[in-house]
Amino acid sequence: AITRGDWIVDARLAKPGERLDVELTLLDDAGITLQHWAPLHVHIGTLHRVAHVALLDDDTLAAGHTARVQLVFDAPVCALPGDRFIVRNAQATRTVGGGRMLDPFGPPRKRRTAERRAWLDALRVWLDDGRIGPLLEEAPRGVSRSMLMQLTGLPAEALLLPDDADEIALHGRDAVIVLRSHWARLRSQVLAALDQYHARSPDELGPDAARLRRIAAPLVPDAMWRALIDSLVDE
Asked: One short Pfam family name for this protein (predicted)?
């Protein structure tokens, strides 16, 4: 059954999340100062849910101020970057603020790292200026094309990629989009790891591809790692 707050969406956008990173502004007369993990009633379109607030910039958020926070729900919620929302107090008796979505796929840990804040800054640039380049600059291991579609709401053919971005095919029809500067850095990282390995163990043949990956680039996606190894072998 379809209930209030449900979405009917293209399958390429059907990826709800439970942790939404947002820009939140409290009204001047909100009458509250938000502490970490404070509950709020959140209204996104017709959806009404209670979420806990994880503060990302400071330890508190006072009335009349804006900050980035993570709204943590107890069930998945559909949203896209740029979507607007309203929040009411814990008693649901008063509207206290609102804001816009930044990243509907917020992480459960390491929410306040410099890398994470830079990613949210890049999403804000996309929302304000429509430029994807800053997102790719903050993605040293690239971003899947499907994720870019989910973050922008645009089909693949409408994504205006910078000239220095390349696509690496994945299984199915997806691909990883990565800047050439990041690709070159990954190649250098792998070669440096090999040099260090042979310097430490000159009598050994060297690590196999799986072990080299664990040493040099454990977080690189499978298909991207295979493409990286293939390019080094070809060279």
From this structure: Beta-barrel_SelB
Alpha carbons 102 and 83: distance in angstroms, whole number: 8
Q: What is the CATH number of domain 11-103?
A: 2.40.30.10
**Cβ contact 142:223 at 8 Å:** no
* pLDDT tens-digit series, residues 72-105: 999 999 999 999 999 999 999 999 999 999 999 9
3-state secondary structure of 159: coil
Q: Show the tokens assigned to 8.
A: 């009917």
Q: How many of the other CB atoms lie within 10 Å of CB of 103?
A: 21
Residue range(s) occupied by CATH 2.40.30.10 in the chain: 11-103
| CB neighbour class for 82 (10 Å; exposed up to 12, middle 13-18, buried from 19) | middle
For 28, phi and psi rounded to 5 degrees?
A: -60, -35
Q: Give the whole-angstrom CA distance, residue 86 versus residue 88.
A: 7
Q: How far apart are CA 174 and CA 104, in angstroms?
A: 20
Strand partners for 84 = 100
